[in-house]
User: Which sequence fits this backbone?
């Protein structure tokens, strides 16, 4: 008797458990049928500029036959419609479409399309009548040709900075420098060809700084800007390093100074600053003649002599 009672109790517990399971299953199925549920295959898609991109919005569960579907673009915190009342609108008009049931396809993506997009579905007859998913789109833009600044002629031993700038690419460009078509490593000590160079390379800003250029730094240089969408390069530019010869400079200065002095002397001489005045008979003033003294000019003398002696 006791055994039968225990068996009945076990049977009732098993039936109760089975009933609970059935209730849970029926509740879950009921919830699935009467609730709108969305999903996406990729919540962070990307595309290169001018390519097509798909923002998937899949309706996993719904009972309403004609749900209301809307897409909103959210940029800088401001939402705007791009699909409303079954029409593409806003800045996607003419270059997007809806692929059933709710996927948004952009056929010609531009850099301005980088933003967050929200798919919203409303089902009036479902118990859970609204659901949404957020998708973050990135449109990658290939860098344009960077602007490169390379000095043409630099004296040996001086500090030099080479610059490379590009501001159109997205994501932000990284920079590489090349010398005679060979990439310059970030650390000169890692390459035997650059181990004697003293420079710092900043891949974020595009600057290549030499603390003191050497003669072997004379070469052709060019810069490459790159990101995930591609790369662009500026044309090669030659930087010449020349040696400073102190003795030659001093000699050159002396030559210039002597030349200036010679020209100055010639100019002064032509102006008559150094001309000598000769004393001639025409401008010589004879002394006053004393009593009893008569002077006569000698033919072969440039001076006067006595004609007769003094008379006392």
Assistant:
């Amino acid at each position: 008797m006791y055994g039968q009672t225990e068996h009945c109790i076990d049977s009732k517990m098993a039936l109760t458990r089975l009933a609970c399971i059935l209730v849970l299953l029926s509740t879950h199925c009921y919830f699935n049928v009467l609730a709108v549920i969305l999903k996406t295959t990729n919540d962070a898609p990307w595309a290169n500029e001018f390519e097509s991109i798909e923002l998937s919005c899949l309706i996993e569960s719904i009972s309403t036959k004609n749900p209301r579907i809307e897409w909103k673009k959210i940029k800088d915190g401001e939402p705007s419609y791009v699909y409303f009342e079954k029409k593409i609108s806003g800045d996607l008009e003419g270059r997007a479409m809806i692929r059933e049931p709710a996927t948004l396809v952009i056929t010609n993506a531009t850099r301005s399309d980088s933003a967050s997009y929200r798919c919203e579905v409303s089902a009036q007859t479902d118990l859970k009548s609204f659901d949404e998913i957020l998708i973050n789109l990135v449109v990658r833009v290939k860098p344009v040709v960077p602007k490169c600044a390379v000095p043409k002629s630099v004296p040996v031993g001086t500090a030099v900075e080479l610059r490379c700038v590009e501001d159109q690419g997205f994501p932000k460009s990284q920079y590489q420098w090349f010398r005679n078509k060979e990439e310059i490593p970030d650390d000169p000590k890692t390459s035997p060809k650059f181990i004697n160079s003293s420079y710092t390379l900043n891949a974020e800003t595009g600057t290549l700084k030499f603390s003191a250029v050497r003669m072997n730094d004379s070469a052709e240089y060019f810069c490459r800007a790159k990101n995930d969408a591609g790369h662009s390069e500026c044309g090669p530019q030659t930087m010449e390093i020349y040696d400073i010869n102190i003795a030659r400079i001093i000699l050159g200065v002396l030559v210039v100074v002597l030349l200036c002095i010679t020209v100055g002397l010639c100019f002064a001489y032509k102006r008559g600053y150094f001309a000598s005045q000769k004393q001639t008979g025409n401008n010589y003033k004879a002394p006053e003649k004393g009593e009893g003294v008569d002077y006569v000019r000698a033919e072969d003398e440039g001076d006067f002599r006595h004609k007769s002696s003094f008379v006392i």
About this structure: The mean pLDDT is 82. Residues 11 and 22 are 17 Å apart (CA to CA).
